[in-house]
Amino acid sequence: MTDLRIGHGYDVHRFATDPGPATQKLGGLDVPVDYPLLAHSDGDVVLHAICDAILGALALGDIGTHFPDTDARWAGADSTELLRQVWSQATASGYGLGNLDVTIVAQTPRLQGYKGPMAEHIAQVLGAQRHQVNVKATTTEKLGFVGRREGIATHAVVLLAGRE
Fold first, then answer.
1. Which of 13, 56, 111, 148 has the smallest number of Cβ neighbours within 10 A?
2. Has keyword RNA-binding (predicted)?
3. Under CATH, which architecture does the 4-162 domain have?
4. pTM
5. What is the pLDDT of residues 43-62, one digit of tens each?
């Protein structure tokens, strides 16, 4: 039997109260926003949740353990590079991607035109086929912190398969 591992990741970042850059990294892409997300790195909640899912599947802790916000080396870090580093741990351990499913929870910005390109970027970083990566987006119907436009959350579920 193939060694299968499932991991779940979750990340959330709040929006800044002052307008900032015209774009925010989400899923590795520059997405137009009114307010940037506050974070130690580039604040890419999508890639952070994926990192946590992969690390969880490998039983290697979480993104904060590997890239702590108390370490100046990770200030402003490119989350695509963080994902590459996490993924290299998976492949070095003999795992490949079964599939990855991501749900972005955001009232704003609207992500309809970005989901496919995000999935393509993520698949490329993971050395996977596009059909192995799914990115969805939803709102909270104006409920909770997301509905009040205070921040963005993301869930990610990954299935890793060990190579025999």
1. 148
2. no
3. 2-Layer Sandwich (3.30)
4. 0.95
5. 999 999 999 999 999 999 99
